[in-house]
Fold these 4 entries.
Entry 1:
Amino acid sequence: MTLEELEVFVTTQANVGMEAYYWWCTALMITIHVGFLMYEVGASRFKNAVSSGVKNLLAFAFMIPTFWLFGWYIYLAFPGGFTPIDLEGYGTPWNVSMGPMLSDQATGVFWAAFTLFACTTASVFSGAVIERIRISAFVFLATVLGSVAWILGAAWGWHPDGWLVTQFGYHDVAAAGVVHMIAGWFAFGVVLNLGPRVGKYNSDGSMNELEGHDLRFSFVGLLMIIVGFFGFLGGCLIWAGADFGGWVNIYGAPATLSSFVFNTLMGLAGGMIGAFWMSKGNPFWMMSGGLAGIFSCASGLDVWYPGLAFVLGFVGGVIIIPANDFLHRVFKIDDPVGAISVHGVAGIWGVLAMGIFASGFPAAGDIPASSFSGQLVGCIVMFLVGFVPGYGLSFIMKMMDWLRVPDHVQEAGIDSAELGLRAHT
Amino acid sequence: MNSWPGPENSWEGVDAYFTSADSEGTLIFWTLVVIAILIFVTWSGARHESDTSKNTKK
């Protein structure tokens, strides 16, 4: 074998390996949606269990074509703000770049991974609105969240040319802000306009617990979400193949898969233990705490000392419970699965923790080093990118009477009224 | 290399190899069909919900 033949061989194998890696990350991420579906079906009352599942399936199905139509383009074209870069058609659905090409083995698998990230934002949002949002309204809002709002935040805070990255050194490698904050606070904006389920609050303002119909679904679902997040987090690393000789983080700085798995597991364990302690043994908060523990470590998943990751996760697992109580007490919202707290609040903690404990970490190229001020700016931006469209659009939809399932249909049950189905006999 | 049967049975010089890759107008057409389906299904679902609400009223 000549040197040239060896180079071709190595490059080819690296490209095929890269394709295969993201293919399987994408497959594993689908498990997140299996988990969210099971969790939400279990957390719904019997009369609404099927419609909760239908909602999750539709979010998944609508996200894929809309992310192909405009989501990927937004990521590529808007790193500078609201003015698109002239890409000469690249990334638009009628451009050859958005179909199979022999010279491009990367675009398809990266688009797929990002599409599943988008689906994840929709699933996060989905849990907060079960049992009283119109399915068509949910599909529209989920599309806006996953194929517009989230990916705009990613263009700003994940793209190596994003203005938050190049001007502020924003560091959020596994998307505590870019995915979890945006999805969580988008959901909060919608929930404010959507209102609680019928029967959630009494006339004196006291709250009732509307228990789900099958705890086993919720148990298994939450564990499936945790499994799926290994695909999600793996997809947040860049396989640089033969070009750079290994892994880099989303910003192009050196990283390892080992750092991700050290800190994911330690954060998960910390979050579970923290929520166990805080909730006095409530298993659902324990598993939500595990997720919150991962999100608490997500911004700096590439740089944490695993012991610190455990502590960050523990704090995340502890804070989500009083945060959830606070949001319900003050805003009189109804978030049946605690999604706003688990994703929105733990996301804030994750983004800020990077600034508190990892300021000064060098970035790639001309990107400034990480800093608390950069993380704070990023945190505010991610909140606004989620909350503003969520609140604004749902407010308009509420005025149009295209948001909430009418109370009499809620009382009858959405499954029988709209779908003519029962979850089981 | 974008229609069947193609003018040549060869992969020589091929890069984008999907159907209608050399016809931007055709790609725009299919893109519009995708958009139309998504909008129609959402509208249809919303109409079903509204009809259900009327029919469920006591």
Entry 2:
Amino acid sequence: MLRNFSVRGPGATTLKRSTDAVDLNLLGRVVARDMRAFETLYRIYHPRLERFLGLITPRRTIVEEALNDTMLVVWRRSDTYTGQCKVSTWIFAIAYRTALKALRTQDEPVAAPAVDDLVCDDAGPEQQLDQRQTRATLMRALDTLSAEQRAVLVLTFFHDLPYAEIARVVDCPLDTVKTRVFHGRRRLRAALHDCLGANS
Amino acid sequence: MKARILPLDSDEHRRAQELLPWWVNGTLDDLETAQMKEHLARCTVCQEGAAALEELRDIPLVPSPREHVDRAWAALRRRLDAPKNPGRGASAWHRWGNGLRAAVAIQAAVIVGLALALWWRQPPAEPYRALGAVSASEANAIAVFRADATQAQMSAALRVAQARIVGGPTASDAYLLRLPDADSAALGRLRAQPGVLEVQSLQAAPPSR
């Protein structure tokens, strides 16, 4: 499972610092219009943004569009990064605003999430089926929450962000983040319970 | 120690419930971590809550295959290469009167002149430097291994490319590598190894656009 690779344990701070340094280095080169650096930054952030946007927006088409819109802003506005927060926080904040804007402009009924697109091809048939079911359940449960609640939950549980950083991404006070997560996870738990009950 | 359930309206319990998600993702500061440890040792409600959140975090989220990322990148490149708002400027231009057109043309010429003068006087831009980027500055490539890659496959891939890991895994599961020469041939050899999902150079390319 990919999550097993995530940074944990005593060395985590050092490794995160080196990640931040790589991000800063790449963004600095993007400011200097280095397209190869931008491609590297894009490929590093694609899975993270896909995971974030895929869980806060219900449609595959919105995810793809919002992801590239986000990275387009990164390319065009890279010189506006002030260094007051981490590069990842800056990029996630752009993605969050882009996703909210995309969701607001979508007035059509929400289609079922594109679960198949995000299932690992390398898994065996049984494992793939299991992954699809689990993910579909999670998506249905997340769908019962507001986009703002979904965003803070996803950043907490699937991106391991501290609450102070989440507050910067969604541009709201620390206490609001804590309250959104507190109520959001209660609702998510109830919705997961309902979905699992309906499946069985 | 015998566990006991604290009343739900207790301030300490409420605060612990609020911080539980970040206890689980390991991002609390030292003081908060110590407080949570102490509380969790005697509160079964929070212990169960933490276990439930761990389960939620364990739901596998698998990234798209490389071909999908390639397609998405190609689509973004097309947008970057396309001219901005073709046609819109022209139609707006035609709606303007002749006098306004001349005024805007003069203004534009002045702006271009000033910009050129400023550009001429500016010293060349200093390269962007990251503070504390000691280990990262050693890296000249990034590699992502497949989720099912074995230790032996990773070691073999690194041996073939004469690469060593100098950092990572990053939040995107990428490892920072140091290769004797991170040219396209060396990166291609590494990319072709079983267990390797993605390889990218970290060396600067000539600026474009």
Entry 3:
Amino acid sequence: MSRTLSEKVWERHVVRRAAGEPDLLYVDLHLVHEVTSPQAFEGLRLAKRRVRRPDLTLATMDHNVPTNDEPAEEISARQIEAMARNAREFGIRCYPTGDPNQGIVHVISPQLGLTQPGMTIVCGDSHTSTHGAVGALAWGIGTSEIEHVLATQTIAQTKPGTMAVTVEGTLPAECAAKDVILGIIARIGTAGGTGNVIEYRGAAIRALSMEGRLTICNMSIEAGARAGMVAPDDGTFAWLEGRPFAPKGAAWELALDDWRSLATDSGAKFDRDVALDASALRPYVTWGTNPAQSVTIDGAVPDPDALPDATRESARRALRYQDLTPGTPMRDIPVDAVFIGSCSNARLDDLRVAAEVVRGRRVRSGIRGLVVPGSMGVKADAEREGLDRIFRDAGFEWRDAGCSMCLGMNPDILRPGERCASTSNRNFEGRQGPGGRTHLVSPAVAAATAIAGHFASPSDLR
Amino acid sequence: MEPVRSIVGRALPLARADVDTDQIIPSHWLKRLERTGYGPGLFEAWRKDPAFVLNDPRYRGATVLLAGANFGGGSSREHAVWALLDAGFRAVIAPRVADIFRNNALRNGFVPVEVDAETVAKLVDAVRRDPSTTVEIDVARATVQAPGIRATFGLDDFSRTRLVEGLDDIALTLRHKHDITVFEAGRPEWLPRVR
């Protein structure tokens, strides 16, 4: 029988199937961080349960951690300490702050080669979909499910539907993976993927670097999808080979044979198909308070009255919150802050692209520019290439790894009313700090915007 | 988990679409180590507006939330469910509930009720006209009712049984420990181990 990539990975992990019940799936890797896990560990303690597979569980600290030399706020410090304590008590490896492997969970696991094709990966964070870029089936779970996975190394889930998003054609020079996924979400909406695993397919997806695929899969959840995946190919294998946790020697050969069988069979049917033409894409900027509310950088703030009934009221509320007037060209909107970071866009490639734009230029006066590498490993790599110097010389702050201004859980937040061009994945009200206004963009557009002082693409600077 | 057979109570007409979990409970509330105490953070930013429906004394004590499409999207934070429970809510009725929120809700005895947009609109009209309107959700029958309104909602048998009987998920799974052990023995050798 012909099967899709996600169906194959799903079927391989079914521990138990019974009529009228969700499948019980085995979890190959459980990633844990300080914010959504304390109550799960407390639950284990109360029930006198242990962690079934500490060797398949990895913890780090990312959401709450300071990214400068300041100590963590007291309440955050308690959570960071709880993570360290729980890791010790339950025998879990943890990369704490200060460790060279510390960073955003969704950056460190692929970087270390822990994220491999065909695996099931869960984490108490919705952006776990990121790992699908390598051909893993990965999704975010809540704290009760974290406790369940810790205790049993399994998770009970109803089988998702399958959805193909096929992007053919060649991406224009100024467009990045971020523009592809923002374009997809603009097309299918924030609930367009609900109940489904999206498989990103087509020439434009295959042409992307692994970093680009990670960006795309990362934002699957912004389309409401259960997960996002890209079939592993030679690019995936080349990227993975030699990473610390990747199989070595004979095991590598065995793994390769297996991974090559994962791609969707020709003739397999998806429950839903969507097609996009990459050559028609442009750099995107969100104007609203959900990731589907976007226009291309050549566009203008839309008039809610011209939008379909279903989205009009949300658009009105979003424009009030964002303090924007319909008809304003995006390039005329000034910003107060630029954030280059997050599990969407804080890998080495992202930083290289942004650095190339700002090299020899200065951040517009009055703008706060923050570069927060996705992991301490990325930070070290970037510094070896001198990227930190380029950012610092341009007037950016160069920080340690963490989630930082993506979700405003540490002191890196916007002040009320401040407007930010952000390479992160969510532009919800107050996401980057109460009253803050977020516009999602690619690293290239974020960098150009920091220089221009208003939304801009790199070619606007020349 | 306590068994949840039915929810009978008044309803709050939030009636907004795309209510993400950052709005339900902002991130700075996620620094707590407990499962309780999140009620004051529920819709914290919107609550600052005196005209926000949660501040309307006519709806005080409501246990059912009426929302627009795509309720609970975004972050996986279970704290969103804890905040709703802490503030006295027991169920949400919306045309569509996001997947992770739905899973989290079911594991806390908070009932996600998906009905068509027209039914939600009728319920919103009814409680706006008369805030004392009683809405009844029967979990075993998967029905929602109010005077002159009746609809069924999708709830798989397994979730229904778990809610009605208040079953502990982990204890349920541990009954199949043998299956897990057998599965583990067949996993490929090359799969990574963290330690």
Entry 4:
Amino acid sequence: MLHLSWVVFLKDVRMEFRGKEALNASLAFALVVLILFSFAFDPTSEQIREITGGLLWILFAFSGVLLVNRSFVREQSNDCLDILIVSKVPASSLLLGKTLANLVFILMIESVCLPVFSVLYNINLFQLPLWLLGTCMLASWAIAILGTVFAAMTVKLRLRELMLPVMLYPMIIPALAAAMYLTNLVAAGKVPEGDDLIWVRLLVGFDIIFTTLALGLIDTILVD
Amino acid sequence: MIDKLLFGVGLASGLYLVRNLYTMLVVLPDEAAQGMIYRIMFFHIPSWWTCFLCFLIAGSASAYSITKKNFRADSLAVAVTEVGLAFTFVGLATGMIWAKIIWGIWWTWDARLTWAFITALTYAAYLMMRNMIPDPSERMRVSGALNVFSFASVVICYKAIDWWRTQHPAAVMSFRTGGGNIDPAMEGMTYHNFFAFILLCTVMVVVRLRQEETRREIEGLRRLAYAG
Amino acid sequence: MDQRNFTYMFYGFAAAWLILAIYVVSLVSRGRKLQDQLETLKRTLSQEKL
């Protein structure tokens, strides 16, 4: 099963890197919104430190939805999705492979946006690189897994671009809240300890619960 | 026959609620610190209990419908979710009014309130999504899966006051604390109102279930009309 | 009876009842619309059969 997930992952990554449509669009969107934020909030004020986490993770959530939407839509042409469903690939492998691919794409967007944010707002986000990496990985996994599952649900709807965000954002609020809090700590250079670790446990628990649910339900969602 | 039964249950719930209202306002003692406003709890707590019970039934019905491909379970799921969502809004509104007086703010983003809000949004999205899928079996599969997903947020909302330190008051009912945190008369009143709400909820679910069956009949007849 | 916060308690009760009443009214009106649709369809189908 893991081998098949890896095959699906490679396929998706290769397809995306050939065209780079979604990545470019998502990156352009993220950078434009970052610049817009710098007009909305004065970049030189100290208040930016308090809202760093909030700004960044709203940005990543929006660009994440753009990326995740594409993962099943790109299979629509030439009935590729139906072929994948009737093939020997189990639905859970399909989900895992696509989620991994989406995770990689979201992390790529983050790896560009974080330095740009640091430069534009003059805040060093990389003081605790391992903590930052951990937070980004856990929260991006949450966006990827729930986004991919909901993308599978909404792939055949007319209004999928509307329904996907409407369904996804309420579900990922806790993961985003935890990521925002931890990113704020990391940006201030404080190592999370004591009470702050509750947020880390929340992120980990959230990821585990919803990954399990997603893997359990994907069969029903995709297979007729 | 069912109509008469429904009417009877509805009337019973109405009378029960009136009796409860009388007890609430006239018989029960006053709470030390809160004044009259604490009596909102007799609507707030039972409405959330009813709502969670509805979503539990919806989740089970959805799980059953996707495993056994049963359309009646699917109809039950949507009927119960809709009624549960109505009780969610009652719970949110009463909670906010109580909070305005006691905390001075309408809303705060503590764990329980956030999850309650998420629950309302996810089930509203479920109802929205159902309207967008024309094919009945696809609708059953996809929305059934979404319903089971959304039930996770109900569970977390229920346990939120145990897992986190919240602004929302901690558990007071004796089945959660072992007793001693609440006047037994007040606790009894909460259960009375809960039963009254369940009766009301049952009537609404049966009415909505019938409407769902009518809707399926209409769909089937339409397909027949277009085919012929 | 302790009269503090009576107004808001009244608003609270009113809110609870109002929301339930609005839901019941919408349920009943939707039911009526559905019945009308069903009647129309049945009539159309029986006419087509003739």
